[in-house]
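re: ur question from yesterday

yeah so i grabbed the chain u mentioned. its 507 aa long if i counted rite. heres the sequnce exactly as i have it in my notes:
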Amino acid sequence: MATEVRVPSLGESVTEATVATWFKKLGDAVAVDDMLCELETDKVTVEVHAPVAGRLDEIVAPEGTTVGVAALLAQIGAAGAAPAKLNEGAAAKASAKEGKMIDVMVPALGESVSEATVSTWFRKVGDTVAQDEMLCELETDKVSVEVPAPAAGVLTAIIAPEGTTVAASARLATISEGEGAGTPVPAQSQTSGEQVPSAGPTEVKVAAPAKDVEDAPAAKKAMAEAGISRDAVTGTGRDGRVMKEDVAKAVAAPAAAVPAPVAAAPRAPVPASDAAREERVKMTRLRQTIARRLKEAQNTAAMLTTYNEVDMSGIMGLRNEYKDMFEKKHGVKLGFMSFFVKACTHALKEVPEVNAEIDGTDVVYKNYVHMGVAVGTPSGLVVPVVRDADQMGFAAIEKKIAELGLRARDGKLSMAEMQGGSFTISNGGVYGSLMSSPILNPPQSGILGMHKIQDRPVVVAGQIVIRPMMYLALSYDHRIVDGKGAVTFLVRVKEALEDPRRLLMDL
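ran it thru and got these structure tokens back, copy pasting raw so excuse formatting
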């Protein structure tokens, strides 16, 4: 009969811990009081010892798992018994007091997306959760993915804490199904009088304060054996603790055959008084991807920008005249973006190289317009795509942009909705930008920047008048688009916007 090894008492007000290091592996023979693993909390480090002699049959909570008080860590069987596979059936097993265990898995992330990062846990170990309640949020290179609870019950273990990179279909947590199920079991059952197997003798050591984080003992031993300093290792554990695998990576790094990328210039020294008032936050995967792609665009494309200005009075007058009728008939407001999309699709037909892309030594001309519309979100800039925008009317464009914009702000865009764009429009004017040079969205060859509408004096028919003017900026890849083509494109957009009747007559 197997003996359970459970999380011991962690101290007053401490309700959860992280499994830092396993000192025994599956199938190892253990003696009474052998140290099996080490747990870490914000306050203390706890060593868990074997309560009986035998063989380590099952490790339920691997390194990095967040566990609650009295949660099951492992099982020790008789010395002659065959060991189980690591974690196999752990979620399906349940004690009489725990109920059925349900795995929380990484959901489908979209085509070609193989991993994600756990950005936020909205529930902690021991919380009662309802079915479909949001447990955590994952971040991929493009989208945020919400993970709902597959069943009602109690969150008994968090296997992938915040900051963990997980593969598609990986296990994130476990839920003990049923009302009140999975509540941490005390050392002595008060209802039946049955004795719960003790987790064995424990040794509690007070850890260093948060500003002086205590590294895992196994990591300290590994650093001493390898002869490397603590400064040479980057910790990935809680609060920057160095774990055993971090030391292994640091030792292997100098021997890597692949040359490391050129590092950014080191940060200038900061006075201690200023450092104490700073906050360091890891970049999200979305922000890292934005940074990488924008820098790639600068490094690979021969990027140039040409400018013009457009008198918006024609569009504004047309919009004011028909906006109420438009909204009543189509159920959506008539904005400026549909005019810009239509103007660009007309201009792209005349200057098709702006809608093309370079593929090696080939130029790929596209006989369609998939219009990317840049949208600012709390997580960063995303570019959902209005497909076949050249075949859509004003109402269809406005409805699609409104739908994609809402989904972008809610973090619910799919990968498919942000791929395949052939040209992009970015509206910095909504934030008050008067003039800017947009960066290409590779592999596209053109991007139009809209800006703030501002009343300015202009000369019309020899008279100085006040008109609502907007600066337009077209950034383009000079490898494929010549200056003549770029200027022609922007002039055609200007003409269509200043005389919207041209759009209706396909001129």
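noticed a couple things. The longest helix spans residues 313-330. also Residues 84-98, 181-212, 255-262 have pLDDT under 50 and may be disordered.
anyway ttyl
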